[in-house]
Design a protein that fits this description.
alpha/beta, Rossmann fold, nine-stranded mixed β-sheet
Amino acid sequence: MSIGIVVFPGSNCDRDMRWALEGCLGLSTRFLWHEETDLSGITAVVLPGGFSYGDYLRCGAIARFAPVLEQVQAFAAQGGPVLGICNGFQVLTEMGLLPGALTRNQHLHFICEPCELIVQPGACSWLQGYSRGERLTFPIAHGEGRYQADADTLKQLQDQGQIVLRYASNPNGSADGIAGICNKNGNVLGLMPHPERACDPALGGSDGRRLLQSLLAVVT
């Protein structure tokens, strides 16, 4: 049983994720090339950060047509855990697995820095190791991380407890300070900050390890 890590041309955090899952948590992983259609033996899927297909058109717009994502869509519909980080979050919105869109940061600059987050886990299965209102720090590294959605969508996300991570100090102008959202069933999570870069105290903190530890329940 393995955690599938999707690899697009332009992915650059796939190996970071493998290091976090295998090196820190002892989990088995399998890279899923973007043309692959076999998810047999996969218990969870991660869409990592990077620049899928060079971010031509817009972030995630080309990746949504990758053959592997047809299988990921079906996997998520059956309740399979799916995590999209940074570019992976952008891909999830382009696929329609999560609502809204990620656009250019408010001041049009690439931002790379530690970022304090406020957790509201709700029914999100990825965040059950955290308590409501807990604060944690993940790094961010993006130029197009400004979450936007229309007023009705934002209200629906709020009412249904799908806004699960907010920035303590909004770095990119995201609507309602949104850093991460989940789907209604709680099995699909998209976030701009990088938990895989917060798994070792010697490398900037370990707050992200607990998020990834939720995968231990699906590989046993």
